[in-house]
Specification:
Keywords: Carbohydrate metabolism, Isomerase, NAD. By secondary structure, this protein is of the alpha/beta class. Bound molecules: UDP-4-deoxy-4-formamido-beta-L-arabinopyranose.
Length: about 350
Amino acid sequence: AAPSYDPGMTWLVTGGAGYIGGHVVRQLLEGGERVVVLDDLSSGERSRVPAGVPLLRGSTLDRAAVDEALREHRPTGLLHIAARKAVGESVERPLEYYRANLTGLQNVLESCVEHGVRRVLFSSSAAVYGLPDVDPVTESTPCAPLSPYGETKLAGEWLLAAAGRAHGLSTVALRYFNVAGAATPELADLGRSNLVPMVFEALTAGRRPLVFGTDYPTPDGTCVRDYIHVADVASAHLAALRRLAADPPGATSLVLNIGRGEGVSVRRMLEVIGRTTGYDATGQDAPRRPGDAASVVASAELIERELGWRAEYGIEEMIASAWQGWCARHPGARREGSKGS
Ligand code: WQD
């Protein structure tokens, strides 16, 4: 059916065909905004971009493609979500990561300045904190990234803030904690590099899921993280861009955690995964993974104060929706008695 709302403003979303970008696009549309996607489809999927949303196939490394998108569509603002995000890979290929993540951002910012686009939102990460020794982690906790990936996100925040100050841009950097789940099965994460999909993969292959480290100084000895539903991550973007749209350009410069403020251990995740999937998800104890912090939990106070945003979904909904997405792609995975169907 035709939308009954007045079309809102237009926002260019780089990486809008990706896992997180696809969810952001969907939320923006539901919020009555207009969206244009720029994505090179290197890891994104065309099918994540809804009909009616222009998909410009191009890389943020191609300055001409970014210029063309801004000239053609004249957006109110830009959400720069396109990036490389595999932490381990970034250690092996730092030059590629710096180029993709920083040159990409630099192109985007130069083009915004040239075309008078003065509102920019940037996807950052809890990876900027490294091994924080405070709980919860506030935005003023010192940053000490442990990987080239985390470095590109921290340097990206600096570049964003400096360009914002010098050129009168309003900016928001959102530091995502551990993103999981899916709003619909088709939008699920296709990667296998995070806890939830790695456990699904082990279970459905008949293996026991590995628990990396059981002697951490945490209540049950396993690592504690702040898992956040991707639909909540997306609604934080909508709240942030509304703030950018309401403030005069150049007036805003925010760095905000996106988390729930609740720590969940690996053991607890396995329990919920077991109950949701119907598989025996008893973990196999394994050595600590290098570079893992015992506990990384967001303080979500600042984003609530600044944007009035807080997370809506819990662990159960993240895992059930991730499982639905997994089963949609691996039809043999579903078991008698498994939830999320
Ligand atoms: C979560 C916990 C593991 C797999 C990374 C990046 C971060 C962000 C999200 C991009 C850890 C444990 C995992 C398994 C396990 N990415 N684990 N068995 O490392 O917290 O964060 O992804 O922005 O920047 O660093 O996420 O999902 O890899 O691990 O025990 O098979 O699960 O040790 O404690 P992580 P993760």
